Amino acid sequence: MTRHILTGSRVFTGERILEGHSVVLDAGRIAAVVPRHEAPVGLSTRELPADTLLAPGFIDLQVNGAGGVLFNDSPTVDAALAIASTLRRSGTTSLLPTFITDAPERTRLACDAAARALEQPGSGVLGVHLEGPFISPERPGVHAPQHIRQPGAEDLVSLVALSERLVRAGGRLLMTLAPERVEDLFLQKLSASGAVLFAGHTAASYERTVQSLASGVRGFTHLFNAMPPVQGRQPGPVVAGFESDDAWCGVIVDGAHVHPANLRQLLKAKPRGKVFLVTDAMPPVGTQETTFTLYGQSILRRDGRLVTEDGTLAGADIDLASAVRNTVRLLGVPLEEALRMASLYPARLLGLESQLGGLAPGQRANLALLRDDVSVLATWVDGNEQWH
Predict the structure, then answer these.
(1) Which residues contact 358 (CB under 8 A, 6 or more apart)?
(2) pTM of the full predicted structure?
């Protein structure tokens, strides 16, 4: 169907919920959102259940794997597409496959695969998130210490070329690094290429973190996690994240990575729209698997957590629909705002809000049809409909 109508459900535009409205799709884009009685006549019409909500599709900027696939194990186009396909069932219509600290050659393979996946129409892939290798050996989390390193001149050249390639294709490079391991000139040049730089897996002081925010770092990867705790005389990167009105903060709302009280305080401190949801999803998400292998070690799925045998968290066992539910239930956030944290705000961070994150004429028809419990009934990716 080229031009057709979705009607019958409530509609969340990204700003407000509308009753009695229809959405007109045309060639994979949103053509109009109009009162139902004003919808064009003579078009094919999909009648949606009255007890559902048609909303912008979710955008996940930190996805290591899903559906039994780990991007680090299989840095290929097929793997990126398989992960995207699995997460579509939970409302994620756009994502950044995330490749964590690894050998340089495998990192290059992952970057090329993500770029080629982005170039495929309707893939749902928006680029790539490189989480490492320029992170702190003091705060590695589950990352492989042998591959953690500081960048060289050749790294800057290749990353700028990758970022520019992704931008030309309508995507982005998101890179997590430790500010204390990278010089300001590196940050400035990479940021100028269109890359989005985040601080994470860092032992940086408060002062160095603030300096990096002035040099091109724009936010924080899973704030609180893999960072020093806040101390009276050492506020560290966490307080820098709280304090900066401009800095974005990605958070994992699974009840395991960060205590809900800390997240509630973060939401009080930050300007509205600067905190967004990520999953940090791993291969068991979307499956019944109870273990998987990362860097040759077994990761166990236990009580909603993914942990090494010594108890270190290794990604998260969550999808974005669950994160939205948790944000409402654990943090007391209204549903509309929780939905924005999973769609509009990630789109704004990437500078893609004219294309994604809302339901307005001209935007891509990336949609999720939600039940009252935020379970997902159907999705549309560039207008391609899939029922789940």
Answers:
(1) 13, 14, 15, 56, 343, 344, 347
(2) 0.97
Residues 167 and 102: their CA atoms lie apart, in Å, by 24
Which 8-state DSSP code applies to residue 329? H
User: Using omega within 30 degrees of 0 as the cis cutoff, is the peptide bond preceding 133 cis?
Assistant: yes
- Of the listed 102, 254, 280, 319, which one is catalytic? 280
Cα dihedral 100, 104, 106, 111 sign: positive
Report which of 353, 329, 351, 354 is spatially closest to residue 340, judged by C-alpha positions.
353
C-alpha to C-alpha distance for 142 and 80, rounded to whole angstroms: 21
Q: What is the number of other CB atoms lying within 10 angstroms of the CB of residue 303?
A: 8
- Contact criterion met (CB below 8 Å) for 112 and 96: no
Q: What is the pLDDT of residues 6-41, one digit of tens each?
A: 999 999 999 999 999 999 999 999 999 999 999 999
Token pair in block for residue 78:
């097929």
**Burial of 364 from C-beta contacts in 10 A (0-12 / 13-18 / 19+):** buried
Q: Which of 280, 320, 351, 360 is nearest to 16 (CA)?
A: 360
The one-letter amino acid at 139: R
Spatial distance between the Cα atoms of 209 and 265, rounded to a whole number of angstroms? 20
Residue 280 known to be catalytic: yes
